[in-house]
């Protein structure tokens, strides 16, 4: 399907520039580009990525999402994620809350486990409707493989910059060979939603790295030391990449997991249906989240110098961390601001 054209992103809203990182340069080992990536990942934790080579897979995923979310609600509910902290499957609008007051969300998710995409046609974590399965070999699995390749490239560079023994971060992710919370997520915000309602509330991402593709505005970041939310402008052909909590903890806070949210698209884009696609890379399920102080003097020093706002030893595995964060977002589990706070990550009081 050709990429549709949209009304332009307005030039009169607060917008935060991101560094543009060239994936091809990273792959060729360009040391200046690696330095620029390091600056982006440690200062804000967000960057654009060009020349990632995943455009075809991304377009296919949006076509798949349109197909899959069009199935009848009754059918969809058979594949709903449920309230136990299991993420894979559909999440319908209103099934999650976006803030401590219990305000309902406005977006639909379709989450597909990396483990299912790679094992297909063998089921690994759960089953999906035919409208998803039909796209597995042609589109979903290739998108997952491509996303893993991109994120594994980042992990290798961060491993080197953090002074970790070779392959240390890989061993906790792809190299662990075990199931993980890694997943591809399609997000649909229906057209004509009230312009004062958030799509997704302020959060940090749960896992290690997020590889995001969107076409309409709406994503906003709260940069360090700034009190006003700022849009990240979608750029054609550019992914938006960011660091999540798990990698921030492992690196002793050197890699930044920055708070962000999804607001209504700005200006003339506000009434349109908004789609985004993310691949979330997360550590293997049994990996205990902790700063890798014993493997890197740089990380050890960072923890010693830290202001104490991030707990670098939360005493949870990646799976426990993930389940806790997903579960406490569910509307059915919301009781009061305390139950909301029980699902928080490294937001550091900024949400
Ligand atoms: O839709 C977007 O632009 C961002 C989505 C996001 O932050 C998330 O799913 O964690
Ligand atoms: Fe996010």
From TrEMBL:
PROSITE patterns registered for this protein in UniProt: FE2OG_OXY (PS51471)
Keyword set, alphabetical order: Iron, Metal-binding, Oxidoreductase
Residues annotated as domain Fe2OG dioxygenase: 180-283
InterPro entries according to UniProt: DIOX_N, IPNS-like_FE2OG_OXY, IPNS-like_sf, Iron_ascorbate_oxido_reductase, Oxoglu/Fe-dep_dioxygenase_dom
A Pfam family annotated for this UniProt entry: DIOX_N
TM helices/strands, residue ranges: none
Top-level taxon in the UniProt lineage: Eukaryota
Listed PANTHER family: 2-OXOGLUTARATE (2OG) AND FE(II)-DEPENDENT OXYGENASE SUPERFAMILY PROTEIN-RELATED (PTHR47990)
Family assignment from sequence similarity: Belongs to the iron/ascorbate-dependent oxidoreductase family.
Name of the protein in question: Fe2OG dioxygenase domain-containing protein
Organism whose genome encodes this protein: Marasmiellus scandens
